[in-house]
Amino acid sequence: MFKYSLLPLVSVFIFINHGLLAQKVNEFPKKTDPLYKKVEMFDRLMLGNHWNEGAIMQHVIFPPAGLERPIIGSQADCLDPTSEMLAAYSHKYAITGDPKDRKIANDIFEAVLKLEKVTGVEGLVARSFNRTNEPLWHEEVFWYHEWHQSSSMPGYRWLGDLSADKFTSIFYGVGTFWELCADDEYKKKAAGLLDRFIGRVVDNNFKLTDLDGKMTLWGNFCPNLPHQELNSLEMLAALKVTHHITGKERYNAAYHMLIDRYHYDDHQINSKIIFPKEWRNVGDDYHAARSLYMIMRLETDPNLLNKYRMNLNRHWYDWKDLEFTWESNIWFLMVYKVLTGEDIFTEEKKQGIKDMWGFERNTREFKIPQKDGSFKLVRSEEEQTAAAMIRNYWFGRYYGIIDEKW
Amino acid sequence: MKSYLTLLTFFVHILYLIGQETPTPPEGMVYVPAGEFIMGSTYGDPDERPQQIASTKAYFIDQYEVSNTEFAKFDPTFKFPPEKKNNAAVVTWSMANAYAKWAGKRLPTEKEWEKAARGIDGRVFPWGDTYDNTYVVWDQKETRGTSIAKPASPYGCYDMAGSVWEWTSDWYKPYPGNEVPMEQYGETYKVMRGGSNFNNHSFIRTSQRYYVLPEKIHVYPVGIRCVKDID
């Protein structure tokens, strides 16, 4: 009787103890805090709880459903927060000049290199990785089952089937790092990575191909295959950035080939689907915004710039009325201002920036698959990402859109 | 004028004869005649090569993918949200195979699936060579029969591009003459066709092949379209 009545207490203790060990950072800002303080505290949460050897986790599940290290969660989109934090620290370093900020950016960039190294194939970049020899439970239930045991980095598993949006994350994040933060050594490393990564896509007739040699589910930029208008824009932007950074003529030649022979410059204009209205997709807008931000600052041909501006105008048709429901769509307006110089920030929109928020820590039940085919329900805490908010802040500070006193 | 009438009479006669030879399909199915067609592609993944002239016997094939409601008639324990009663059922290969047998049908071979989707002329999509967003199911919450325009394949099938992937009876193996090695070839993976509403445009091409473990589909939405032999 005595033994059993103690069990719940022991369980609670173990649960709390697990929580304390795993939740490295537990301090959250208040909604009423000034923006700089909210950013500072979410930054600590992201670096403390979401840091996976430099890669940034989009979703973290704490024990008992998750692990102590590496903490796990959905990993299909990890390159998005990773590139956002890389861009955030690049903009931050450009403002502060603080070597500590540059060190963090360098470490995040090294994780992108590791995402290539872990696949064992030059230029093939993983969506994410985990340091483990055994498959983890979430591999079975989150996203497509494209996990592989690494042969080049024993003790690691990696997620394949890279998509066009993660392709965009790479040239946007690495391109921003090269531009604002990297020293000479890291500039060479960044150029080398883009050369291998984009070079492999070009060599495969503008397709992202996986370990099996087949095109990935979302890896189609090929002129001989039907693809979305947005993918034409992403490919042109990637080639422009890679030519700028590597100086290699082959990327400039590929850029002009896609324009002259396959009319990607015309095709990309319709990246934004405006009608039917329910087809408007802010997720796709984010990839377009990153691509337009990169390509429009590098292109000097007025005819091509006009076509990219037409694309931006179609987006603006929707963005001008957007409600700030998602941190990334606040960034669309910042990008629009940077690219056009138009003063579009009303007091209401400025307030929207000041009100930016990261995430709440939630508790929910996870359905964990067992070896016998059954499922076990486990209640755990989880966190989403604040990387977009942190990037928005330093981007806005860099371009003078956000006041440091906000 | 007389020659026009002779010609017209000739064509009416031919059409009458063709009509006589076409068996009436069971309800919800369409007829695919025997004969050769262009299979594979020269521009897709290596496993689509070589492009070849293949042939099939005549068969019937379902016009639409099997819905949740239809599948639940076979398996009353099959659960789905009430608002998705007309969506395509997403099932493992053995469930799909069992359903087909129960319905007095079978799963199509890759050849049968591809011919029903593209006809004989090697077209890229069931309706032709040009992609159009309104021709496919765009909303990821919906599947069968919900595209804005509703183009049919040459034999009258719908949603063979997009909606959900569709099981075939074939293992994932190289086409005869294909010399690009793939470790996935063999009797481990089954082939699914037609793409879904959650992949890029190229995956809904009629010649696109994709492999998946028959009993472990994870989050791949794979459904059923059956064929029936003609006695």
The first-to-last residue Cα distance of chain A is 59 Å
What name goes with the CATH superfamily of chain B? paralog of FGE (formylglycine-generating enzyme)
Assembly type of the shown chains? heterodimer
What gross morphology of chain A would you assign?
A: globular
CATH architecture descriptor name of chain B = Alpha-Beta Complex
Count of alpha and pi helical runs of chain A: 15
Compressed to H and E, one letter per element, the order of chain B equals HEEEEHHHEEEEE
Task: Note the total helix count of chain B.
Answer: 4
Strand content of chain A: 5-15%
In round numbers, the mean pLDDT of chain B is 92
- Radius of gyration of chain A in whole Å, from Cα? 22 Å
Instruction: Outline the low-pLDDT stretches of chain A.
Output: 1-21
Give the N-to-C terminal Cα separation of chain B: 44 Å
Tell me the major beta sheet of chain A: 3 strands, antiparallel
Protein chain pair with the most extensive contact, residues per chain: A-B, 25 and 28 residues
Give the spatial strand order of the biggest sheet of chain B: 7-6-5-8
CATH architectural arrangement of chain A: Alpha/alpha barrel
GO molecular function (chain B): formylglycine-generating oxidase activity
Protein name (chain B): Formylglycine-generating enzyme, required for sulfatase activity, contains SUMF1/FGE domain
Organism (chain B): Arenibacter troitsensis
Pfam family, one (chain B): FGE-sulfatase
